[in-house]
Q: What sequence folds into this?
Protein backbone atom coordinates (compact mmCIF):
# COMPACT_ATOMS: atom_id res chain seq x y z
CA UNK A 1 0.00 0.00 0.00
CA UNK A 2 1.13 3.51 -0.72
CA UNK A 3 1.65 5.65 2.34
CA UNK A 4 -1.36 7.96 1.89
CA UNK A 5 -3.63 5.10 0.87
CA UNK A 6 -2.56 3.12 3.92
CA UNK A 7 -3.23 6.03 6.27
CA UNK A 8 -6.70 6.49 4.78
CA UNK A 9 -7.56 2.77 4.97
CA UNK A 10 -6.37 2.48 8.56
CA UNK A 11 -8.28 5.63 9.51
CA UNK A 12 -11.46 4.19 8.01
CA UNK A 13 -11.05 0.96 9.96
CA UNK A 14 -10.34 2.87 13.17
CA UNK A 15 -13.34 5.15 12.67
CA UNK A 16 -15.63 2.17 12.07
CA UNK A 17 -14.44 0.25 15.10
CA UNK A 18 -14.73 3.37 17.24
CA UNK A 19 -18.34 3.81 16.12
CA UNK A 20 -19.08 0.17 16.98
CA UNK A 21 -17.45 0.65 20.38
CA UNK A 22 -19.56 3.73 21.12
CA UNK A 23 -22.80 2.16 19.84
CA UNK A 24 -22.09 -0.86 22.00
CA UNK A 25 -21.90 1.42 25.03
CA UNK A 26 -25.50 2.47 24.34
CA UNK A 27 -26.84 -1.09 24.11
CA UNK A 28 -28.41 -2.54 27.23
CA UNK A 29 -26.23 -5.63 27.57
CA UNK A 30 -25.93 -8.07 30.44
CA UNK A 31 -23.12 -6.81 32.55
CA UNK A 32 -20.64 -8.10 35.09
CA UNK A 33 -19.11 -4.86 36.22
CA UNK A 34 -19.12 -1.21 35.22
CA UNK A 35 -17.16 -0.77 31.99
CA UNK A 36 -17.30 -4.36 30.76
CA UNK A 37 -18.28 -4.75 27.13
CA UNK A 38 -19.47 -7.36 24.63
CA UNK A 39 -16.72 -6.66 22.11
CA UNK A 40 -18.62 -5.76 18.95
CA UNK A 41 -15.70 -3.63 17.79
CA UNK A 42 -13.90 -6.94 17.29
CA UNK A 43 -15.74 -7.12 13.96
CA UNK A 44 -13.40 -4.52 12.49
CA UNK A 45 -10.37 -6.26 13.98
CA UNK A 46 -11.39 -9.53 12.30
CA UNK A 47 -12.03 -7.88 8.94
CA UNK A 48 -8.74 -5.96 9.16
CA UNK A 49 -6.87 -9.17 10.03
CA UNK A 50 -8.20 -10.92 6.95
CA UNK A 51 -8.07 -8.06 4.45
CA UNK A 52 -4.81 -6.30 5.32
CA UNK A 53 -1.71 -8.35 4.56
CA UNK A 54 0.38 -7.04 7.44
CA UNK A 55 -0.29 -8.08 11.04
CA UNK A 56 0.95 -4.78 12.41
CA UNK A 57 -1.85 -2.92 10.59
CA UNK A 58 -4.53 -4.84 12.51
CA UNK A 59 -2.57 -4.25 15.74
CA UNK A 60 -2.28 -0.54 14.99
CA UNK A 61 -6.02 -0.21 14.29
CA UNK A 62 -6.85 -1.86 17.58
CA UNK A 63 -4.26 0.13 19.54
CA UNK A 64 -5.45 3.49 18.22
CA UNK A 65 -9.10 2.52 18.75
CA UNK A 66 -8.48 1.64 22.39
CA UNK A 67 -6.68 4.94 22.97
CA UNK A 68 -9.37 6.98 21.22
CA UNK A 69 -12.15 5.12 23.04
CA UNK A 70 -10.51 6.12 26.32
CA UNK A 71 -10.29 9.72 25.10
CA UNK A 72 -13.97 9.72 24.12
CA UNK A 73 -14.90 8.97 27.69
CA UNK A 74 -15.65 5.81 29.59
CA UNK A 75 -13.06 6.42 32.25
CA UNK A 76 -10.13 4.47 33.54
CA UNK A 77 -12.08 1.28 34.28
CA UNK A 78 -13.48 1.10 30.75
CA UNK A 79 -9.94 1.61 29.47
CA UNK A 80 -8.61 -1.40 31.39
CA UNK A 81 -11.51 -3.59 30.19
CA UNK A 82 -10.86 -2.38 26.70
CA UNK A 83 -7.12 -3.08 26.79
CA UNK A 84 -7.48 -6.54 28.37
CA UNK A 85 -10.20 -7.57 25.92
CA UNK A 86 -8.33 -6.17 22.93
CA UNK A 87 -4.91 -7.65 23.72
CA UNK A 88 -6.21 -11.12 24.60
CA UNK A 89 -8.61 -11.44 21.68
CA UNK A 90 -6.22 -10.08 19.05
CA UNK A 91 -3.41 -12.22 20.47
CA UNK A 92 -5.34 -15.47 20.28
CA UNK A 93 -6.83 -14.61 16.87
CA UNK A 94 -3.44 -13.86 15.27
CA UNK A 95 -2.06 -17.05 16.81
CA UNK A 96 -4.91 -19.24 15.57
CA UNK A 97 -4.97 -17.61 12.14
CA UNK A 98 -1.26 -18.39 11.91
CA UNK A 99 -1.94 -22.09 12.62
CA UNK A 100 -3.93 -22.18 9.39
CA UNK A 101 -6.38 -24.92 10.33
CA UNK A 102 -9.18 -22.71 11.56
CA UNK A 103 -11.69 -20.71 9.52
CA UNK A 104 -12.71 -17.13 10.22
CA UNK A 105 -15.59 -18.40 12.34
CA UNK A 106 -13.38 -20.45 14.64
CA UNK A 107 -10.84 -17.65 14.93
CA UNK A 108 -13.45 -15.00 15.71
CA UNK A 109 -15.29 -17.21 18.21
CA UNK A 110 -12.00 -17.82 20.05
CA UNK A 111 -11.45 -14.05 19.89
CA UNK A 112 -14.86 -13.47 21.48
CA UNK A 113 -14.14 -15.96 24.26
CA UNK A 114 -10.74 -14.40 25.00
CA UNK A 115 -12.23 -10.92 24.90
CA UNK A 116 -14.58 -11.96 27.68
CA UNK A 117 -11.76 -13.71 29.53
CA UNK A 118 -10.12 -10.27 29.60
CA UNK A 119 -13.34 -8.71 30.94
CA UNK A 120 -13.57 -11.28 33.74
CA UNK A 121 -9.91 -10.89 34.68
CA UNK A 122 -10.22 -7.11 34.92
CA UNK A 123 -13.55 -7.37 36.73
CA UNK A 124 -12.09 -9.66 39.39
CA UNK A 125 -9.25 -7.19 39.87
CA UNK A 126 -11.56 -4.16 39.97
CA UNK A 127 -13.87 -5.58 42.63
CA UNK A 128 -10.98 -7.47 44.26
CA UNK A 129 -12.94 -10.72 44.23
CA UNK A 130 -11.66 -13.78 42.41
CA UNK A 131 -15.11 -15.34 42.52
CA UNK A 132 -16.04 -13.20 39.54
CA UNK A 133 -14.04 -15.83 37.64
CA UNK A 134 -16.98 -18.17 38.22
CA UNK A 135 -18.86 -16.18 35.60
CA UNK A 136 -16.31 -17.33 33.03
CA UNK A 137 -18.35 -20.25 31.59
CA UNK A 138 -21.40 -18.02 30.96
CA UNK A 139 -19.24 -15.29 29.52
CA UNK A 140 -17.29 -17.77 27.40
CA UNK A 141 -20.57 -18.93 25.85
CA UNK A 142 -21.64 -15.31 25.34
CA UNK A 143 -18.25 -14.55 23.79
CA UNK A 144 -18.54 -17.54 21.46
CA UNK A 145 -21.98 -16.25 20.44
CA UNK A 146 -20.72 -12.73 19.77
CA UNK A 147 -17.74 -14.24 17.94
CA UNK A 148 -20.03 -16.37 15.79
CA UNK A 149 -22.08 -13.34 14.72
CA UNK A 150 -18.91 -11.35 14.08
CA UNK A 151 -17.42 -14.27 12.13
CA UNK A 152 -20.47 -14.66 9.88
CA UNK A 153 -20.63 -10.90 9.29
CA UNK A 154 -16.90 -10.88 8.45
CA UNK A 155 -17.22 -13.78 6.01
CA UNK A 156 -19.89 -11.96 4.03
CA UNK A 157 -18.19 -8.56 4.26
CA UNK A 158 -14.88 -10.02 3.06
CA UNK A 159 -16.60 -11.88 0.24
CA UNK A 160 -17.91 -8.58 -1.11
CA UNK A 161 -14.83 -6.58 -0.22
CA UNK A 162 -12.68 -8.93 -2.31
CA UNK A 163 -14.70 -8.06 -5.42
CA UNK A 164 -13.91 -4.37 -5.08
CA UNK A 165 -10.94 -2.84 -6.94
CA UNK A 166 -9.84 -1.25 -3.66
CA UNK A 167 -9.12 -4.69 -2.20
CA UNK A 168 -6.26 -5.25 -4.70
CA UNK A 169 -4.69 -1.98 -3.66
CA UNK A 170 -4.95 -3.03 -0.03
CA UNK A 171 -2.87 -6.12 -0.79
CA UNK A 172 0.06 -4.20 -2.30
CA UNK B 1 -22.08 -21.87 -0.87
CA UNK B 2 -18.63 -22.53 0.44
CA UNK B 3 -18.46 -24.21 3.79
CA UNK B 4 -17.56 -21.55 6.31
CA UNK B 5 -17.06 -23.61 9.44
CA UNK B 6 -14.91 -26.73 9.77
CA UNK B 7 -14.38 -29.44 12.35
CA UNK B 8 -11.28 -27.67 13.73
CA UNK B 9 -13.38 -24.62 14.56
CA UNK B 10 -15.91 -26.70 16.44
CA UNK B 11 -13.17 -28.60 18.28
CA UNK B 12 -11.45 -25.33 19.18
CA UNK B 13 -14.58 -23.71 20.62
CA UNK B 14 -15.51 -26.90 22.50
CA UNK B 15 -12.05 -27.06 24.10
CA UNK B 16 -12.17 -23.37 25.06
CA UNK B 17 -15.61 -23.75 26.62
CA UNK B 18 -14.42 -26.73 28.66
CA UNK B 19 -11.35 -24.75 29.74
CA UNK B 20 -13.64 -21.95 30.93
CA UNK B 21 -14.85 -24.35 33.64
CA UNK B 22 -11.38 -24.39 35.26
CA UNK B 23 -12.15 -21.65 37.84
CA UNK B 24 -15.39 -23.47 38.66
CA UNK B 25 -13.40 -26.65 39.28
CA UNK B 26 -10.79 -24.90 41.41
CA UNK B 27 -13.38 -23.21 43.60
CA UNK B 28 -15.32 -26.46 43.85
CA UNK B 29 -12.25 -28.37 45.01
CA UNK B 30 -11.30 -25.70 47.53
CA UNK B 31 -14.87 -25.77 48.83
CA UNK B 32 -15.58 -22.15 48.00
CA UNK B 33 -18.20 -22.93 45.39
CA UNK B 34 -21.37 -21.79 47.10
CA UNK B 35 -20.22 -18.29 47.88
CA UNK B 36 -20.85 -16.82 44.44
CA UNK B 37 -24.53 -17.56 44.83
CA UNK B 38 -24.60 -15.54 47.97
CA UNK B 39 -24.99 -11.86 48.44
CA UNK B 40 -24.29 -8.65 46.62
CA UNK B 41 -25.31 -5.08 47.35
CA UNK B 42 -27.14 -2.82 44.94
CA UNK B 43 -26.63 0.89 45.41
CA UNK B 44 -29.38 2.97 43.86
CA UNK B 45 -29.33 6.72 43.46
CA UNK B 46 -32.52 8.48 42.37
CA UNK B 47 -34.05 5.07 41.60
CA UNK B 48 -31.30 4.18 39.17
CA UNK B 49 -28.65 1.56 39.81
CA UNK B 50 -25.42 3.32 40.68
CA UNK B 51 -23.17 0.38 41.48
CA UNK B 52 -23.36 -3.29 42.37
CA UNK B 53 -20.86 -4.75 44.81
CA UNK B 54 -20.36 -8.45 45.56
CA UNK B 55 -20.47 -8.90 49.34
CA UNK B 56 -19.92 -12.57 50.15
CA UNK B 57 -16.28 -13.44 49.81
CA UNK B 58 -15.34 -9.78 49.86
CA UNK B 59 -12.36 -9.06 52.06
CA UNK B 60 -10.88 -5.81 53.22
CA UNK B 61 -12.37 -2.34 53.03
CA UNK B 62 -13.55 -0.57 49.92
CA UNK B 63 -14.74 3.02 49.99
CA UNK B 64 -17.37 4.27 47.56
CA UNK B 65 -17.87 8.02 47.70
CA UNK B 66 -21.21 9.07 46.20
CA UNK B 67 -21.42 12.71 45.23
CA UNK B 68 -24.68 13.83 43.64
CA UNK B 69 -26.67 17.02 43.28
CA UNK B 70 -28.41 16.04 46.51
CA UNK B 71 -25.22 15.81 48.55
CA UNK B 72 -22.38 13.60 49.66
CA UNK B 73 -22.37 10.09 51.17
CA UNK B 74 -19.45 7.84 51.88
CA UNK B 75 -20.34 4.17 51.49
CA UNK B 76 -17.96 1.57 52.86
CA UNK B 77 -17.82 -2.11 52.07
CA UNK B 78 -16.15 -3.83 55.01
CA UNK B 79 -15.61 -7.55 54.38
CA UNK B 80 -19.09 -8.82 53.57
CA UNK B 81 -21.01 -5.90 55.03
CA UNK B 82 -21.93 -2.51 53.60
CA UNK B 83 -22.99 0.75 55.19
CA UNK B 84 -22.83 4.54 55.11
CA UNK B 85 -20.24 6.12 57.40
CA UNK B 86 -20.29 9.75 56.32
CA UNK B 87 -23.05 11.96 54.98
CA UNK B 88 -23.85 15.64 54.80
CA UNK B 89 -27.59 15.01 54.96
CA UNK B 90 -29.53 16.81 57.70
CA UNK B 91 -30.90 13.75 59.54
CA UNK B 92 -27.91 11.31 59.46
CA UNK B 93 -30.37 8.44 59.70
CA UNK B 94 -28.43 6.57 57.02
CA UNK B 95 -25.31 6.48 59.22
CA UNK B 96 -27.25 5.32 62.26
CA UNK B 97 -28.51 2.31 60.34
CA UNK B 98 -25.03 0.81 60.52
CA UNK B 99 -23.65 -1.99 58.40
CA UNK B 100 -25.88 -4.56 56.68
CA UNK B 101 -25.09 -7.93 55.12
CA UNK B 102 -28.25 -10.08 54.99
CA UNK B 103 -30.36 -10.36 51.84
CA UNK B 104 -33.31 -7.99 51.99
CA UNK B 105 -31.65 -5.56 54.41
CA UNK B 106 -31.54 -1.92 53.34
CA UNK B 107 -29.83 1.34 54.22
CA UNK B 108 -31.61 4.44 53.04
CA UNK B 109 -30.61 8.06 52.85
CA UNK B 110 -33.89 9.75 52.04
CA UNK B 111 -32.66 13.34 51.66
CA UNK B 112 -30.06 12.14 49.12
CA UNK B 113 -32.34 9.53 47.48
CA UNK B 114 -29.83 6.75 48.07
CA UNK B 115 -30.92 3.16 48.63
CA UNK B 116 -28.56 0.32 49.40
CA UNK B 117 -30.10 -3.11 49.31
CA UNK B 118 -28.49 -6.50 49.89
CA UNK B 119 -29.65 -9.13 47.44
CA UNK B 120 -29.07 -12.83 47.12
CA UNK B 121 -27.78 -14.04 43.77
CA UNK B 122 -29.07 -17.56 44.49
CA UNK B 123 -32.43 -18.28 46.04
CA UNK B 124 -34.20 -19.00 42.77
CA UNK B 125 -33.62 -15.59 41.25
CA UNK B 126 -33.13 -15.99 37.51
CA UNK B 127 -30.43 -13.33 37.20
CA UNK B 128 -27.29 -15.09 38.31
CA UNK B 129 -25.40 -12.17 36.83
CA UNK B 130 -26.57 -9.01 38.53
CA UNK B 131 -27.91 -7.16 35.51
CA UNK B 132 -28.80 -3.57 34.77
ZN1 LIG C 1 -28.65 10.41 55.17
A:
Amino acid sequence: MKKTFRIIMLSLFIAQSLVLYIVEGMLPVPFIAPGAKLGLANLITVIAMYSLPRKRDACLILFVRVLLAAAFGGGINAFFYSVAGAVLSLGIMLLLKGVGKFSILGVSMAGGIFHNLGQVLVASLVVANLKIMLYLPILAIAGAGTGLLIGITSVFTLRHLKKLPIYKRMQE
Amino acid sequence: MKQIINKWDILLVAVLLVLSLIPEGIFYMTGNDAAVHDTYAVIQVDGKIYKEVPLSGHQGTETIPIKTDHGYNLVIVKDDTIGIVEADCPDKICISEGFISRPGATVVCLPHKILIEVKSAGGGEPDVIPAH
In short: Confidence is low (pLDDT under 50) at residues 123-132 of chain B. Residues B 87, 89, 91-94, 109, 111-112 surround zinc ion (CB under 6 Å).
